Amino acid sequence: MKFQSQDKAVSFETDFAGGKIDQLVELGGGDFEILIRPENEPINDSAWYAFRVHATNPRQINVRLRYEGGSHRYAPKISHDRVQWESAEHLIVARHPGGREVTLRLPVSDQVLWVAGQELVGNKDIANWVDTLAQLPFVDSSLAGRSVQDRPIHRIAIGNPDSREVIYALSRQHPPEVTGTIGMMHFIEALCGDTELAKRYREEFLTVAIPIANPDGVAKGYWRSNANGVDLNRDWLKFQEPETRSIRDDLVHLRGDQGKRLWLFLDFHSTYNEVFYTVPKQTKLFPDGFTTEWLKSLNGRMGDSTMLRDDGHNAHRSTSKAWVARELGIHAVTYEFGDETDRERIRKIAFGSAEEMMKILLDRKANLEPTASR
């Protein structure tokens, strides 16, 4: 979408990957209204927006975000180069009590201003990140499959390819959940680090990661779905979508055809705070008691309230963690970062959780009885 004010002084655009507004109206006097709708309904309330705006000369404009089928969840982030972002909640000058409308007062000029619900971390950004990691001698990049609209589903494998021991991670089943992807990137970078711990871990374990499971939804600026309008994290029973089928087949191939032993599955997401969503604690999984030990270790390192645990969340829905725990018998965690958590804190939590995970897994493997393997 491209839009110019009547006097041609102010221009809006969404003609970029992840750009999303559904309608724009000029109200007059430097005021504009943007309508934001979901791709389908009913839908999880994760209303996404992203646009560029610039003007022929410096001015202040009011932009009202009006939501249909949802409400305001993501505080605006702004950037002048699409690389460096900052929170812009201070630009909110009015809010509807129910969250259906929010008005921003934006300082615009001939320098493009990017405005979005979260930083833009899209398919191209991830492809570049994967290419950078793949230059490391212990990282291999490939494709797990292709999406509905034929976009690549990138896959990276980190560590010893001959190791039997495997950790599996994915991110971005839900397009707007950018902090989950940011956290996963830091987590993976910790595993790729030059520390003695990371080196020992990579010798003993292979980590497989899918950085963007829903590339179509990310490209189209969807709230929740893939290009077929399906919530991928509700498709882990029927496996009707090519994205979930590709990831399932990769997991099954690793365990079956390649004879690997899976230890842990992590699905990175975003919500209102840091939390581990798990299957019920009493569920018998390999390795015994791992998630409880990991969480205790992480909170001991970072602070007792850093990461919460909810072991009943979506317990009976067809989510990734439920399928993996039931069918593969291993610990499966939906690893959530807060939407508005400080990005440096996300980095610290991700690095801390990766290091504590590596310590525990190395210790568990060293002490594993032969009869305990699955």
TrEMBL record:
Record CDD domains: M14_Nna1-like
Active-site feature positions: E336
Biological process terms in GO annotation: proteolysis
Sequence ranges assigned to domain Peptidase M14 in this UniProt record: 119-374
A Pfam family of this chain: Pepdidase_M14_N
GO molecular function: metallocarboxypeptidase activity; zinc ion binding
Co-factor requirement: Zn(2+)
Family affiliation: Belongs to the peptidase M14 family.
Protein name: Peptidase M14
Source organism per UniProt: Rhodopirellula bahusiensis
